[in-house]
Amino acid sequence: MKKASDLINAMMDSLLQNDAQREAVSLFSAWTQIAGLNEGAHSHIEEIENGVVFVKVDHPGWLQKLEMKRNGILKKLQKNYPELAIKTVRFML
Q1: In degrees, to the nearest 5, what angle opens at C-alpha 64 toward C-alphas 61 and 70?
Q2: Dihedral sign from CA coordinates of 15, 17, 20, 23
Q3: pTM
Q4: What gap in Å lies between CA 11 and CA 5, rounded to an integer?
Q5: Which of 10, 32, 65, 87 lies deepest, with the highest CB count within 10 Å?
Q6: CATH of the domain at 40
Q7: Which domain holds residue 84?
Q8: Phi (first) and psi of residue 91, to 5 degrees
Q9: Do 74 and 14 contact (CB within 8 A), yes or no?
Q10: How far is residue 67's CA from residue 69's CA, in Å, rounded to a whole number?
Q11: Contact at 8 Å (CB) between 46 and 57?
């Protein structure tokens, strides 16, 4: 009998057909580490489309803080997730 974790991993592998899809899933779960603990607690990735990472922020103050960190965040994303070919990050309320 297979363990539930083995079944889930097999299902995820079949759903995530390429490296870009795997990296996207990894990015969603690593957002807090990339943005920073406080900033990550007040924001989350909404979607990734055409090389743009769309991030929703829960307050204008956190939006401003993330805007100031945009270049650093973008460099981390491009370095850690090359398969996604990220060009920019857009923050929104």
Answers
A1: 145
A2: positive
A3: 0.77
A4: 10
A5: 65
A6: 3.30.300
A7: 4-92
A8: -105, 140
A9: no
A10: 5
A11: no
CA 32: distance to chain centroid?
A: 9
**C-alpha to C-alpha distances, 26 to 23, 38, 63, 71, nearest whole angstrom:** 5, 19, 23, 20
Query: What is the number of structural domains in the chain?
Result: 1
Give the H or E element holding residue 80: helix 70-80
Q: Which residue, 16, 30, 17, is CA-closest to 77?
A: 30
Residue for token pair 């390429």: 18
Q: How confident is the model at residue 79 (pLDDT cuts 50, 70, 90)?
A: very high
- Going by the DSSP 8-state scheme, the letter that residue 34 receives in this structure is H
